[in-house]
């Protein structure tokens, strides 16, 4: 494997916005610090969870730089750098590298629905000029296209490709990617509360998900239990996390419920950006009930 230390729990972070929808960099720095204190192994910033589509060029730099400055080299910062064109992708990678991030996460182009040969061309252009090692990102629900097993296999041979975040929700694909590429690259599962234990047992090195900042050290304990073969503990913890996600993922448009959860447990969540609406009062009340019923929030909490 190209980078054996690239593994473990890597939370996908939200980006806090104020009531007027401006970027709250101070709140973001606090969130980064709190998640690091949970004992995670890396940070994923400016992804889907971070409402990356809404950030200006300057705001993206602030997000990259803030995460890198708070991390202080203690753990890798993975920067979401996907774009429709290779040129724009490389621009974002340049920003991330200059800010001090360690890895660029790159999905296939979205919206235009490229064919496999065109996706391969896109990655070839990015990899030829990237200033950072690259984490492949397969999330067809957002891009409209899925990386095929054969293309992932070929890209895994490239020296700059160090891993993949596989978020297709297709267990057959994830399992095959693990078996075929894990000797060369770090395979991370998405949707860890559903696939985490199975993926780690199959040979994934870790997971990247949006629930960990809410689950805090419970997510870290789950990973350690799974990694050390304590399956009874791992199963119980995954069931707890999945139980909460089953209820709140249907509340509002992602990541509104994640941000509301963070607010409820006293961590910086903040507003979503238009056109995503924050949860309504009724939705927040329902979320509170779910969090209390599943033990993630005590009744007297703020």
Number of domains: 1
CATH superfamily: Aldolase class I
Number of strands: 8
Name of the CATH first level: Alpha Beta
CATH topology assignment: TIM Barrel
Give the integer mean of the pLDDT values.
94
Number of helices: 13
From the coordinates shown, what is the CATH architecture?
Answer: Alpha-Beta Barrel
C-alpha end-to-end distance: 45 Å
**Biggest sheet architecture:** 8 strands, parallel
Describe the strand arrangement of the main beta sheet, using strand numbers: 1-8-7-6-5-4-3-2
Q: In terms of per-residue confidence, which ranges show pLDDT below 50 for 5 or more consecutive residues?
A: none
* Global shape: globular
What is the radius of gyration?
Answer: 18 Å
What structural class results from the helix and strand content? Answer: alpha/beta
Q: What level of helicity do the residues show? A: 40-55%
Kindly estimate the percentage of residues that lie in beta strands according to DSSP. Answer: 5-15%
- What is the assembly state of the chains in this entry? single chain
> What is the element string, with H for helices and E for strands?
EHEHEHEHEHHEHEHEHHHHH
Structure commentary:
This protein is an alpha/beta fold and 302 residues long. Helices cover 48% and strands 11% of the residues. α4 links the parallel β4 (103-106) and β5 (134-138). The mean pLDDT is 94. It has helices spanning 25-37, 57-71, 86-99, 116-129, 140-143, 149-155, 171-181, 192-202, 212-215, 217-227, 231-248, 256-264, 281-293; strands at residues 8-11, 43-45, 77-80, 103-106, 134-138, 161-166, 186-189, 206-209. It has 13 helices and 8 strands.
